[in-house]
């Protein structure tokens, strides 16, 4: 498997469609940036904004028929999805700059969403300290690849640290 942390420099991406379900039961597809490896395996290049369980640097097995993916190898990155509404633009810009200062990066952005990716070595306390600086009103954030559907820790980071 490739020895990468999910770096995006100098590489071309392909897009695969993964189905995302909502709490209300609705579904939609998110196009996730990947690099094909072989035999249905892909390296995730940018952490997704809505798909749960995967982050940049992960190697996934993709099922084109069900539009689903299974992690084959963890890339050692933590994804944080920050949803916001009605907060000043300078607060969002500050978040992105501070994330970069501690080793993170912005992997995606929409009008009310910022997707941040951090190497797990940054540590959960450091990531959470950064997020604690955000306003309480108008901001919700969640880890995209830390908990399973029942809210139990996946604990993959114990194998990579």
Could you outline the blueprint of secondary structure elements for this entry?
Blueprint: E1 14-21, E2 27-38, E3 41-44, E4 59-63, E5 68-73, E6 77-84, H1 89-101, E7 105-110, E8 113-119, H2 124-132, E9 139-143, H3 157-160
Antiparallel strand pairs: 1-2, 2-3, 3-4, 4-5, 6-8, 6-9, 7-8
Would you write up a description of this structure?
It is a single chain. The chain has 161 residues and is α+β, with helices and mostly antiparallel strands. 16% of the residues lie in helices and 38% in strands. It has three helices and nine strands; from the N terminus they run ββββββαββαβα. The strands form two sheets. It has a five-stranded antiparallel sheet, with no helix packed on it. It has a four-stranded antiparallel sheet with strand order 7-8-6-9, covered by helices on one side. β2 (27-38) and β3 (41-44) form a beta hairpin. The radius of gyration is 15 Å and the shape is globular. It starts with 13 loop residues before the first strand and ends with a helix. Residues 1-9 have low confidence and may be disordered.
